[in-house]
Specification:
The complex is a heterodimer of chains A (473) and B (250).
Chain A: H1 3-15, H2 17-37, H3 41-60, H4 62-76, E1 78-83, H5 86-99, E2 104-107, H6 111-116, H7 118-123, E3 128-131, H8 134-141, H9 158-168, H10 178-195, E4 198-201, E5 205-207, E6 212-217, H11 221-227, E7 231-237, E8 241-242, H12 248-260, E9 267-271, E10 285-291, H13 295-299, H14 315-319, H15 321-326, H16 337-348, H17 350-358, H18 365-369, H19 376-388, H20 405-417, H21 421-434, H22 442-447, H23 461-467
Parallel strand pairs in A: 1-10, 2-3, 2-4, 4-7, 5-8, 7-10
Antiparallel strand pairs in A: 5-6, 6-9
Helix pairs in contact in A: 2-12, 16-17, 16-19, 17-19
Chain B: E1 10-13, H1 17-21, H2 24-36, E2 40-42, H3 52-57, H4 60-73, E3 80-82, H5 85-98, H6 105-112, E4 115-117, H7 118-125, E5 137-142, H8 145-149, H9 154-162, E6 167-170, H10 185-188, H11 190-207, E7 211-214, H12 217-229, E8 235-238, H13 239-247
Parallel strand pairs in B: 1-2, 1-3, 3-4, 5-6, 5-7, 7-8
The chains are: A alpha/beta (473), B alpha/beta (250).
Chain lengths: 473, 250
């Protein structure tokens, strides 16, 4: 991704009044919902500190926990597969599906599967994967990608969704009645659930001690994807592992409270094995695909490792003033919003996704609400620095990609000026006298697209203090 | 520092580069208001910028060089008062990180421990009481992100405004949202920054206030610049200048 393409996409998003209205409305309501379930500031702070500690502790033992998870899962009858890249993960999923001669797949919401571009991959092998989360279903009908981690179709309003259903679901009448729309989706999806041989889902937390896959959702589609088809394939990023079952209650409270402002989701699935002998339902096979995709590289850096604490609640998106204005698609990568700004550049490389790290005013709204306290602004600063860094020991993909001489010289000049007080005072005086004649070019031109020119004071504070005989040292 | 902290006889004033070049009246007002409380204010002429522009842009070495000059210029063990939540946040919370692993980390940490945002110092340390001499006026308040989230001093800033009997403070509907300044962000991503500041300006406009008061001149320059660009009638003022204007003799 070039900086130019990002800028073009941003301009297009900002010019779309309906899109901005949809996001402003939706994010505003999410903020209020979160506030309602985290109304006690001290309790919330305690909980966030606990969430941070649980994730940090798990990450500190990550290799060991992943091995433990594999052993526990295997003991339970869950087959564990390791995938270093999305391509490998896709291949594993395909092989499992093909070994059951499956052509119909139902899917629960999973951001890792988005990372893998799984649906497109399966389609090239004649396998139709149907998204069963309502939001995912809507955007799949319309050939779009998620614009939000939790609510993938949030960029659409009711009228737009009505139109999509009418145009893309055979026989669906045009209706803006929510109950009717839901009924249309339900009718379409029920058949798919019955036909599917394989169900694919994501994983919110994987418990190493017990080999339990935890999956939260509100529509029951996740429960059906993981119980109706005879084969269940769960895909997860390797950072999802936690130590014990006791870690789950605080993490779930944080995740659901932050994501949707719920105390608990409608469905909390704890999957520990395939159908056992004598059991009447559940899949015959359960597979767990654990994806790396750059995560172990992120893990290698103690500061950047904090990126992997993320529980994908999406609350940083909801609270981000930039996300709220440009929406998810303008980011141009799988993960939008503040978490995307730190995750995509590390996964895809700074040369490709680096511009995302600059698209933040560092206001700190994300860090303030992050349920596991990821210091997103600090990591953004770090990635900005890595873009210029030629340090050979840097583990960040694409580091040093920005070798803009003008920018480097500008900062060198800035530092020189601000460490030489006499020269600095002289330049400030010069700007005070002649600043208004500066040509509106470069940064000043970009400033003046939306604002009047900043007016230098005729006399600086340094000079006023001297002249008015105020105290110096 | 708690309310029991003794009133110092002398403090340093760090003006910030924006106040030095663009808003010297705000700086003078902030100094006069401290001196009015019987505290001597020293203004080291070797001071320049806190270093945040480079720090946030990915140039920590350049930021550190500039920060180091400030640490050297403010040697005496007395409070350093800063009329900006953002610069104060940089000096108080980020210097220790910026100097991690450097030989002068202890000096940086000691420096950070002496930093106060101006309204925080006025209320928390000096316990200032204000007498409003101005005509009735409706104003609104803009919270800078770093004053709010890093320094957490918005309560003190508003306390000063609320002490003014004839001033009606109308809060913004989206007070907690960034105005879109973000230093170099404003010129690196002009369209996003422009969208943010225009929404902020609309929010201010809806309060019907004649003036927006802020504790940070970066935000102020951004907001008033955008309002003027659109020909809107409200003006902006730094908190210290506003307080001085309404409370000084003659």
């Amino acid at each position: 991704m070039t900086a130019d393409r990002f800028e073009t996409d941003v301009d297009r998003a900002l010019a779309d009044a309906q899109l901005r209205k949809n996001f402003a409305f939706a994010m505003g309501s999410f903020i209020l919902k979160r506030k309602a379930v985290f109304s006690d500031a001290a309790e919330t702070e305690r909980l966030r500190t606990l969430g941070n500690a649980i994730k940090q502790s798990a990450l500190s033992r990550l290799p060991e926990l992943l091995e433990q998870l594999e052993a526990s899962c295997t003991r339970n009858g869950i087959r564990v597969h390791w995938a270093e890249t999305p391509a490998v993960a896709n291949r594993i999923v395909l092989e499992v599906i093909e070994s059951h001669a499956g052509t119909r797949v139902v899917k629960g919401k999973s951001m890792v599967s988005e990372e893998m571009h799984l649906n497109a991959f399966l389609a090239t092998h004649g396998i139709e994967a149907i998204e069963t989360d309502l939001g995912e279903f809507i955007i799949q009908l319309n050939g779009e990608t998620p614009s939000h981690i939790i609510v993938p179709a949030i960029h659409k309003n009711k009228a737009q969704i009505s139109k999509i259903f009418h145009e893309k679901v055979p026989g669906a009448p045009y209706t803006e009645d929510v109950a009717e729309l839901t009924a249309i989706a339900r009718r379409t999806l029920r058949r798919r659930f019955q036909e599917a041989t394989v169900g694919v889902s994501g994983v919110n937390f994987a418990v190493a001690e017990t080999g339990t896959l935890c999956l939260v959702e509100n529509e029951g589609n996740g429960r059906m994807c993981t119980t109706l088809p005879s084969v269940h394939i769960a895909v997860m990023g390797l950072e999802k592992v936690v130590e014990t079952l006791e870690d789950l209650p605080p993490l779930l409270r944080l995740l659901t409270g932050s994501a949707t402002g719920q105390l608990v989701t409608t469905y909390v699935n704890l999957i520990t094995s395939p159908r056992r002998e004598g059991e009447k339902d559940g899949p015959q096979e359960v597979h767990l695909v654990i994806l790396d995709n750059g995560r172990s590289r992120i893990y290698a850096d103690p500061e950047l490792r904090q990126t992997l604490q993320c529980v994908r609640c999406g609350t940083c998106l909801n609270h981000c003033p930039v996300y709220t204005r440009i929406g998810g698609h303008a980011y141009g990568f799988v993960y939008p919003g503040p978490i995307g700004k730190i995750l995509n550049p590390q996964v895809e490389g700074l040369d490709k996704a680096g511009p995302l790290a600059t698209a933040s005013s560092l206001c700190g709204a994300c860090e303030e609400v992050c349920p596991v306290k990821i210091p997103i602004p600090a990591l953004l600063r770090r990635l900005r620095n890595e873009s210029y860094s030629t340090a050979p020991d840097s583990a960040v993909l694409g580091h040093g990609c920005r070798q803009n001489l003008t920018e480097r010289l500008a900062w060198k000049g800035w530092a020189f000026l601000n460490t030489h007080p006499r020269l600095n005072r002289w330049v400030t005086a010069l700007l005070g006298a002649f600043g208004e004649y500066l040509p509106p070019a470069g940064p000043l031109e970009r400033w003046m697209r939306y604002r009047t020119e900043p007016m230098f004071a005729p006399k600086s504070l340094h000079r006023r203090i001297k002249e008015e005989g105020l105290t110096d040292e | 520092m708690t309310q029991e902290s003794p009133k110092p006889s002398k403090v340093y004033f760090f003006s910030t580069c924006l106040i030095d070049a663009f808003y010297p009246d705000a700086g003078l007002a902030a100094i006069r208001l401290i001196e009015r409380e019987g505290v001597r204010v020293a203004f080291p002429s070797g001071q320049s910028c806190c270093g945040q522009p480079a720090y946030n842009s990915g140039f920590p070495a350049e930021a550190r060089a500039v920060a180091r000059r400030q640490i050297q210029a403010f040697r005496e063990d007395i409070p350093i008062v800063v009329p900006s939540g953002s610069c104060a946040g940089m000096m108080k919370h980020h210097y220790p990180k910026l100097f991690a692993g450097e030989n002068d980390l202890p000096q940086a940490q000691a420096f950070s421990g002496r930093v106060f945002e101006w309204s925080e110092f006025m209320v928390q340390v000096l316990g200032v009481r204000l007498e409003d001499r101005g005509a009735p006026l409706r104003v609104t308040w803009h919270s800078s992100c770093h004053a709010m989230r890093e320094m957490q001093v918005i309560g003190h800033s508003k306390d000063l405004i609320r002490q003014l009997r004839n001033v009606e403070l109308v809060e913004l509907a989206h007070e907690h949202e960034c105005c879109g300044f973000g230093g170099t962000f404003a010129v690196k991503h002009p369209a996003i920054s422009g969208a943010l500041v225009n929404d902020k300006v609309d929010d201010i406009q809806r309060t019907g206030a004649a003036r927006v008061i802020a504790g940070d001149c970066g935000c102020l320059m951004n907001i008033t610049g955008a309002a003027a660009h659109r020909g809107l009638p409200f003006t902006g003022q730094h908190l210290a200048e506003f307080i001085w204007e309404r409370t000084h003799d003659g």
